[in-house]
Structures are given as structure tokens and as C-alpha cells.
Amino acid sequence: MVVASKAENLNEALSRNLKTAFLCHSHKDTALAEGVDKYFRRMGWSVYIDWKDLSMPEKPNEVTAKKIKNRILTTNYFLFLATENSMSSKWCPWEIGIADVSKGVDDIFIIPTSSGFSTFGNEYLGLYQKIDVGAQGNLAFWRPGEENGTRLANR
């Protein structure tokens, strides 16, 4: 894999017109979030993760909500890490609602996960594109109802 140009932080990525994404996830899934972040950074994307933002209030409040909303609006893409934890989160459904209204379906991607018994990312999340492992082992994205994915690197 060719490593694309990287930015030190989200603001630099935005100023250099690099691909940026807001990662919606449960804080209970930090290890998974780190993995998603690492993968996308290798592709040259800058991924915003709220708990890495030192300007966030220590305890979530309306300032937290304003900052999150602003980051959803300013990043190119919205990634929803669909886990049991994010599906039961208070914040994640609100965040995807903001993305749905501000970005539309073409810039929202669901990253489904499974626990061995259940697959997370169903129901209303089926309205959006999903990112998963494609036939060649690379990440690909599928639009709702599509049988064949497109390599994510082509996005």
C-alpha cells in the first residue's frame, strides 16, 4: 500500500484539502477506534476522534455537542463504527442524524462489526454505504443494495 501525504492534525488536513473523516463510535470501543484510525491514516486520511481532542470538556455537556457537531460539519466523511456499544449509545444516533442532514448519504459510511452471534449496523443504518473487506482482502465500500463493492482507495 502506498502511504499518502499525511497531516499532523485535522486542521492541517482541512487546510491542505486532504481527506478527513469524523469517526462516530462508543468510547467503550477505543481499541477498535484506534484500529480504524490507524488504517485510514495509512491511506492519508485525517480521522477526528473526540477523546483525542484536548479542547473537549472533561465531562460531556453542550460545549461537547457544539464541538462534535462542528467537526461532523467540517470533515469530508462520516464513519460510523457499528458495534453493540455504539448502537446503544446516547450520542451515536444523534451524531449520525447530524451527518445525515448535513452530508447526505454519499459521504456517510457504516463500518459493521460482529460479535459471533450478531452483526451490528443493520436497520436504519442500511440506508448508508458500508465499508467492509472486499474480495481481494482490501477495504471496499458498497452502496445500499449493491452486490459488488468499490475499493475504498478509489474514493
Task: Explain the overall architecture.
- This protein has 155 residues and is an alpha/beta fold.
- It has helices spanning 10-15, 30-42, 62-74, 84-87, 91-102; strands spanning 20-24, 46-48, 77-82, 108-114, 119-120, 129-133, 139-142, 150-151.
- Strands 1, 2, 3, 4, 5, 6, 7 and 8 form an 8-stranded mixed sheet that branches.
- A hairpin with a 4-residue loop joins strand 4 (108-114) and strand 5.
- Helix 3 (62-74) packs parallel to helix 5 (91-102).
- The protein is globular, with a radius of gyration of 15 Å.
- 27% of the residues are buried.
**Count of distinct strands:** 8
Rg from C-alpha positions?
A: 15 Å
Strand content: 15-25%
- The oligomeric state is single chain
Distance between termini? 15 Å
Average pLDDT, to the nearest integer?
A: 86
- CATH class categorisation: Alpha Beta
Note poorly predicted spans: none
Number of domains: 1
Judging by the overall fold, what is the CATH architecture?
Answer: 3-Layer(aba) Sandwich
Helix fraction by DSSP (H/I, runs of at least 4): 25-40%
CATH homologous superfamily label:
Toll/interleukin-1 receptor homology (TIR) domain
Class from helix and strand fractions: alpha/beta
Shape: globular
Q: How many helices in DSSP terms?
A: 5
Largest sheet: 8 strands, mixed
| CATH fold-level assignment | Rossmann fold
> What order do the SSEs take from the amino end to the carboxyl end, as H and E?
HEHEHEHHEEEEE
Set down the secondary structure blueprint.
Layout (H helix, E strand, L loop, with lengths): L9 H6 L4 E5 L5 H13 L3 E3 L13 H13 L2 E6 L1 H4 L3 H12 L5 E7 L4 E2 L8 E5 L5 E4 L7 E2 L4
Parallel strand pairs: 1-2, 1-3, 3-4, 4-6
Antiparallel strand pairs: 4-5, 6-7, 7-8
